[in-house]
Amino acid sequence: MNKESKTNIGDTGNQHENGNQPMGTPYEKDVVAWAEEQAALLRAGKLASIDIEHIAEEIEDVGKSEQREFASRMAILLAHLLKWQFQPERRTHSWTNTILAQRAAIERRLRKTPSLKPMLTDEDWIADMWGDARELAANETGIGFADFPESCPWAMSSVLEQGFLPE
Q1: Given CB 3.0 to 4.6 Å as the disulfide criterion, which of 41, 116, 136, 148 pairs with 79?
Q2: pTM above 0.85, yes or no
C-alpha cells in the first residue's frame, strides 16, 4: 500500500499542513459539525489541533454578516422614508411601523456592535446603501429610480431620530 492510500481509523484525510493530526470533520463537508468540533478543541485548549485558517474566515464572516444586516436595515428605513416623502397620499400605519421597527433594530445593533457606527459617516458606504434604498423604493412604488435624489438628502443622525419623517 502506498503512502497516499493509507487511512487511519477516524482519519478524515483533513490534516494540518504538517500532516500530523487529523482535524475531524472537514470544513467543506459539514460546517456545523466542523464548528462544533473546533469549539470543543478550543475549549479543551487543544490549539495545535484547530483549523486556524477556517476559524479566521468564520470570524471575519461574522463581522461581514453584521455589516450586511446593518446596511439592509438602513436601506429599508431609507426606502420607507423615500416612500413617505414621495407618496404622502399613500402613507399607512404599515409604513410607520416599518420605520419605527427598523430604527429600533438599528439602535439595538449599534448598541450591541458599536464598531458599526463609523459606517454612518463613510461616504462610500452611505452611497452604496442609498442606491439600495432607491432601488427598493422604486420597486415598491413604481416611481422611477432616477426620480429619487442621487444622494441621500438627510443626515444620518436625522434618519435615526425617532420623530424624523420627511415632508
Answers
A1: 136
A2: no
